[in-house]
Known about the structure:
Layout (H helix, E strand, L loop, with lengths): L8 H26 L5 H24 L14 H22 L7 H27 L5 E7 L2 H12 L5 E8 L5 H15 L3 E4 L11 E4 H9 L9 H10 L3 H22 L3 H12 L4 E7 L5 E7 L22 H9 L6 H7 L3 E3 L4 E2 H10 L12 E3 L1 H5 L10 H17 L2 H20 L1
Parallel strand pairs: 1-2, 1-3, 3-4, 7-9
Antiparallel strand pairs: 5-6, 5-8
Helix pairs in contact: 1-2, 1-4, 2-3, 3-4, 9-12, 10-11
Amino acid sequence: MPMQFLFGRDQVLLFLGDVAAFVVALYLALLMRHLALPSLADLWAHAVPFSFLLILWLVVFVSVGLYDRHVALFERRLSATITEAQIVNFLLALAFFFVAPVAVQPKTVLALYFILSTALIVVWRLGVFRIFRGNRAEVPSLIVGTGPEIEELVRTVCETPKTGLTCAAFIDTATLGAQEVEKRIAEAAQLHNPSLLILDPRVDVRIPGIDVIEADDLYETLFNRVALGLLDRASFIRAATRRESRLYDLLKRAMDMLAALILGILSLIAYPFVSLAIFLEDRGTLFVVQQRVGQGGSLFGMQKFRSMTGDDSGQYGKDGKTKLRVTKVGNFLRKSRLDELPQLWSVLRGTQSLVGPRPELLPLVELYRKEIPHYDLRHLAAPGLSGWAQIYHDNHPHHGTAVEATKEKLAYDLYYIKHRSLILDLDIALKTMKTLVLRLGA
């Protein structure tokens, strides 16, 4: 369940500050464009069309959650969210001035305005707004729920000052009925006077006068992964599909094709050297083609440079381990990710993306579907060469069955699917390049 949009004191203050930032940005853009104070006529000519745009832009801010009631609590992703919203706003502005019958066509002014308004809003929200709303470094919280993820939240909130929260009390609902839960919450609220109720989404109760944040939303904010034990399948699918948009899909596909074409052509330089190295080591085949599970559960052949003594097809023995081993050349190929280069042609064909959950072998998918609840949700998005789990999950399962490690990986994959955006894709791409540089420098 998404956090509610409520106009409290902070929301009104944020709204007014954003409007002021947009207005000041327009004035500064005109000033910088002409290197002189703008005339009243020039101001009026730009103010009329930009007023219509302002309404559209604020609607975009609402849609991405920049006026959610608890946006002031967790500012870790605020810059990225603002940038994402501003990119959408800039595209809306281009479309507006292309089709609308307005007297001005402010190409340079619009570019300056985009840069200045983004900078001003970031400064306003991450700097000035903190001063206006006062020092609220610690918010006393009442945590209600049960399960491993709730316990992890309790430990983090109670022991980690950087969250900006304090644990006023914790109510474990494992053995409590609905009426007893409501009674215990009311008693704890009266005794501890918490400002925030962190509520297990499976508990349906509200206490007047206390702000509520769903525990699964907070969990994702703090840990960059979904809480599998709190996951509601229907709600997740609604949230994940709501993140989809035709514009995002088109832009991502266009960037995938452009990047894959350029990188694919450049990668051809490495093919002769990789081929020679593999041949000289064991005279074996150059490529392996593995059946992997893609978007919607469809199968596709994923091609890689061979890095093992054979083809790891996912058919393991009773011990769940492969009998194959990684070759010396294969070890270098994996460390440098050169073994992945042939997959660029899959990206060009559209069976893979540059960014997305890593596709798994069919036998392992069949096993994990039985052992791990909601595992098939990772197939809502196109598989990628690199993904959120590859960056944040340290315990990657390789060449064998690993149910517990795969559960952890799934939590990160589902986080990406739920929150995917161009900004998140760019973040993953940059972090992947950083990881590759560090690996090669090690």
